[in-house]
Amino acid sequence: MESIAFLGAGNMAAAMVEGLIANGAYAPGRILCLGGGGSTAQALSVRTGIRLASSLDDLLADAGTLVVAFKPQHLAKADPRLAELTAGRLVLSVLAGKTLASLEAAFPRARNRVRSMPNTPGQIGAGLTGWCAASPLSEADRALLGQLFGALGGSLELPESQIDGFTAICGSGPAYVFEFAAALRDGAVGLGFDPATARHLAVETLLGASRLLARRDVDPEVLRNQVTSPNGVTAAGLARMASRDFRGMVRETVEAARSRARELSA
Ligand SMILES: NC(=O)c1ccc[n+]([C@@H]2O[C@H](COP(=O)([O-])OP(=O)(O)OC[C@H]3O[C@@H](n4cnc5c(N)ncnc54)[C@H](OP(=O)(O)O)[C@@H]3O)[C@@H](O)[C@H]2O)c1
Predict the structure, then answer these.
(1) In the sheet where 153-157 sits, what is the strand order?
(2) Of 159, 152, 160, 210, which Cα lies nearest the Cα of 180?
(3) DSSP symbol at 52
(4) What is the C-alpha separation between 117 and 114, in angstroms, rounded?
(5) Which atom of ligand 1 is nearest to the CA of 14?
(6) How far is the CA of 116 from the centre of ligand 1 (A)?
(7) Is the Cβ atom of 95 under 6 angstroms away from ligand 1?
């Protein structure tokens, strides 16, 4: 079986490598990595047992797939030899905002190019990755991608035109949830709870509500209504959210994020 090469060995590459090994999809000996001038690649190799490549040629000598996992701005400065070295290989990019057209320019001879947008819950296998491929995928490449994305959690194939929207909802979404968690925690402190207890209350409430929502096959409004008796405690809280147009604010939030994603990927 061919090896998988990671160019860039930071947080995202580490999450994928650790997931691949934990799932049993790939033995560490079949995964290689290479970084830039720093120490992340060596650290990842020492921590997981994957091989640290000595050069780009070494990285790609036996690899059928290259996962490009450096920062998006590194693509323009990447070694031009990558165009030849990736000939016949599958290239999977996790670079935010880098379009299939820009991947084609950098890796013109790859057998296929895939643009993906993972999110941070992938670090614990609870992510959702949106992706699109430049050309129709062979069964073998589709299965390979399933393993790679499976290392981070779930995945969803989308037309490229929807990747910016996916980024605004699922890429940035965890930050909105963390902001809401922080607001709930601050609200608890305002009601007199000590900071540690306030954090506990906010986290457990979000976790429990999210699990319940994921397990029940109903709209969130159904579960919301189950908590809300007419003129009761929750109704008082929700009325205040509605009076400040909470939904309108969230709509504007995701629209602003998508506009920025479009600007950055233009
Ligand atoms: N983190 C996320 O949740 C997330 C979500 C979606 C998408 N992404 C995408 O994932 C990518 C990586 O993000 P990250 O958070 O993992 O970044 P990171 O932790 O900063 O890691 C960046 C990696 O790139 C390496 N690198 C730097 N210059 C390089 C070069 N010229 N050639 C090869 N490798 C080079 C670095 O190696 P040295 O240590 O040697 O410098 C390091 O291993 C980004 O493109 C980002 O858009 C991340």
Answers:
(1) 51-52, 31-34, 3-7, 63-68, 90-93, 112-117, 127-133, 153-157
(2) 210
(3) E
(4) 10
(5) 16
(6) 14
(7) yes
Note the pLDDT tens digit of each residue in 190-223: 999 999 999 999 999 999 999 999 999 999 999 9
- Nearest-atom number in ligand 1 for the CA of 123 is 3
- Residue pLDDT, tens place only, 82-120: 999 999 999 999 999 999 999 999 999 999 999 999 999
| Helix, strand, coil percentages, rounded to 5, for the chain | 55, 15, 30
- For 173: left if phi > 0, alpha if psi spans -120 to 50, otherwise beta; the answer is alpha
Q: How many CB atoms lie within 10 A of CB 40?
A: 17
**pLDDT tens digit string along 6-31?**
999 999 999 999 999 998 989 999 99
pLDDT at 266 over 90: no
Nearest CA to ligand 1 atom 44: 71
CA 85 – ligand 1 centroid, Å: 20
Q: How far is ligand 1, taken at its centre, from the CA of residue 71, in Å?
A: 4
Regarding the beta carbon of 75 and ligand 1, being less than 6 Å apart is answered no
Atom of ligand 1 lying closest to residue 41 CA: 43
* Domains, the chain, ordered by start: 3-159 (3.40.50.720), 171-265 (1.10.3730.10)
Measured from the CA of 72, which atom of ligand 1 is nearest? 45
Is the pLDDT at 2 greater than 90, yes or no? no
* pTM, full prediction: 0.94
Question: Could you tell me if the CB of 40 is within 6 A of ligand 1?
Answer: yes
The Cα-based distances of 247 to 9, 171, 243 in angstroms read 38, 19, 10
